[in-house]
Amino acid sequence: MSDRWRIAGVAPPQSRWFFDLARWSTAGVIPVDFVKCISIAEMRSRFALGETYSALLVDAHVVGLNTSLVYEANDYGCEVILIGELPEQQCVDLGVIAQLPQNFKHGNLVALLQTHAKVLDITASLASLNNSESSTTWQGSFISVTGIGGSGASLLAVALAQGLASKASNQGLVLLADLALNADQAVIHDSRDIIPGLQELVESCHAGWQGHDRLRHLFFEPVGRGYHLLLGLRRHLDWTTIKQRPLEIALNGLIRTYRFVVADTDADLEGQSDTGSNDIEERNRLARSAIGRSDLVVVVGAADMLSLHALVRTIFCLVDKGVSCDRLLPVINQVSKSPRIRSSLKTTLAEMLDNTDAQNTPEPVFVPAHRSVESTLRDGIRLPAFLCQLLSASVATQLAHLKCQN
Q1: Of 49, 115, 217, 332, which residue is 20 to 30 A from 87 by alpha carbon distance?
Q2: Is the pLDDT score of 127 beyond 50?
Q3: Residues 59, 197: Cα–Cα separation, whole Å
Q4: What are the contacts of 339-342 at 24+ separation with CB within 8 A?
Q5: Starting at the edge strand that comes first in sequence, how are the strands of the sheet with 228-230 ordered?
Q6: Contacts of 82 (CB under 8 A, 6+ apart)
Q7: What is the pLDDT of residues 13-37, one digit of tens each?
């Protein structure tokens, strides 16, 4: 269905109806594309960008709710629906078209939309976007870093971003994007703020990529690191708010803006064709989208027996999902400097991959044990240079090899 209601909502992030409406929209329970805003100022900036909406839902507890906002929304062609309890006369004075309780049902909302809101042709609104995307020739490199929990993949994603950004010509052109379901980059960077992040970026792309200058406020710049940071989901269950089309628009926009996008992502890639469940495919949407567009996938594992087995299993999964062997770069983390141990790990990995579809996977990169990293993170300073340079040099070499092949 191309004709849908496109509605915006303004409410505190913890509002229950905010979550419910996003879930109904994502699951297709109602024909609605829902855009969340956490402040009146953000909503006004969307109007200023020329975004169009069928209706605007505003929580009664939002600071700044007044007749000026309602009139402004009306000028942009959408009616305002109040969510929450306010006296009837106050609603009349505000000029809202209707009022719903905080625990409203989707049927109540649909009935109001059918009466007061216009449907929008989403396909037509995206036509110009498709043309602009196809006409853009330059793209940066998209690098996914993945591995099972405890492998150190998130930390090595930071090290890779810092290593790439240490080159003077890459300053400000490297983005570290947290695309994991259990997002850790806010903790690793000791971020005092968890908003804005990935959710706000994806929501801003319902009407197309707005340009990095207009979205600059969504990215952080960790002090002294040289790269930008896109924070991830605030809660694991927030994957329900991420929709495929705006996510693709957002990722396309990022690789047209940055020279390198380093994505910290999961290794779970199962979809509907594997499990028969569309819910599982939607849950794994971030990982599937990131891995699917990656120029290179860095697969991280540790040096112990179980972790090495998990590394091989992850490589098999990636190859099974269509990632060619030359786009994989195995990394074995926390390895002893002993040549004998490294040779044994290399041989073991080769034997486990031999006579399989993944037998042409490149030789692993060994990352030595880094005991000082924990204190470095606590102090909020740059990671050790040797760690960052090792990873960035290995990635740059593999990317150059792939470029030569193409």
Answers
A1: 115
A2: no
A3: 22
A4: 341/303, 342/366
A5: 228-230, 174-178, 260-264, 141-147, 296-302, 328-335, 365-368
A6: 58, 60, 91, 94, 96, 98, 99, 100
A7: 788 898 889 889 878 889 888 888 8
